[in-house]
Amino acid sequence: MKIMKAVFPVAGMGTRFLPATKASPKEMLPLVDKPLIQYVVEEAVESGITEIIMVTGRNKNAIEDHFDRSVELELLLESKNDSTRLEMIRKISDMCDFSYIRQKEPKGLGHAIARARNLVDDQPFAVLLGDDIIHSVNKPVIGQLGQIADKMESTVLAVERVPEDKVSSYGIIESEQVEQRLSRVKSMVEKPSVDQAPSNLAIIGRYILTPEIFDYIDKTEPDANGEIQLTSALNMMLADSKIYGYEFEGKRYDAGDKLGFLKATVECALRNPELGPSFRNYLSGIKL
Q: Which of 42, 174, 180, 205 has a beta carbon 3.0–4.6 Å from 132's, enabling a disulfide?
């Protein structure tokens, strides 16, 4: 199950970051010196993925422009003999192949993934959500999931234990442990209340899916909000296939949340070799 393609659902409106996202994509918010979406693309590329399929919506052209070449900027940097920045921006468009398809209506994650069906072309594929920025010391998280999917020959979901007061914000799995960090999923509940949650193992925005998922998405009825939930399709798939949850190695930041975004900004700045030492000194001098 070598994973070569990844789907990035990036059609959301980013309402939690209004007014900053009124005219600009949430995915393009800068995390120190790179937009959020670039961190996630780099994770995919470092895991061996060579083709990225962006499922976009209206007002998302900035994402396409970011991963395209900017001839005028390259000529300007060449004229200034700024080889360092020139190499940096060229690497952005050369990382992998990019394809784009529109999700014309906000009909949920399942619907967004289904829009990529023809581009996936009947292969196992990865799904990465841009709200989750994950720092891994060794192997990127989607690469960790790829290894498990290859070993188990099944769909694999990234999962993480969350505090009880947060379970209502996630899809939660009921599972039985297979080995360290790995569980077989028995059922899933989308955003349950604390008393209805089967565990505190939450599904995080990284998936390895087999192409059979598209047939189950087609059979999934919209929820009360008119959205087709991926969790519902996966629950249906459980009747015929094994699905595993893997507690990944790495630190996750919920960059779709303002506090999570600020935490990610501070810690990314501290890890930045150029900014880290001076920023650490600055923080130590702050008196609250």
A: 205
Q: What angle do CA 37, 41, 46 make, to 5 degrees?
A: 150
Is it the case that residue 287 has pLDDT exceeding 80? no
C-beta separation of 163 from 194 below 8 A: no
Produce one character per residue of 247-279: b if its CB has 16 or more CB atoms within 10 Å, e if not. bbebebbbbbeeebbebbbebbbeeeeeeeeeb
DSSP code string of 187-248:
EEEES--GGG-S-SEEEEEEEEE-TTHHHHHHHPPP-TTS---HHHHHHHHTTTS-EEEEE-
pLDDT one-digit tens code per residue, 148-203: 999 999 999 999 999 998 999 999 999 999 999 999 999 999 899 998 999 999 99
Q: How far, in Å, CA of 173 to CA of 201, rounded?
A: 6
Q: Which residues pair with 208 in a beta bridge?
A: 126, 156
Task: Give dist(CA 267, CA 135) in Å, integer.
Answer: 10
Q: Return the structure tokens found at 213.
A: 């998922």
Whether 234 contacts 215, CB under 8 Å? no
Residue tagged 């395209």 (tokens): 68
**In this predicted structure, what is the pLDDT of residue 2?**
86
Give 168: exposed, middle or buried? Use CB within 10 Å, 0-12, 13-18, 19+: middle
CATH class of 5-284: alpha beta
Write out the two tokens for 89: 């921006």
d(CA 62, CA 89): 15
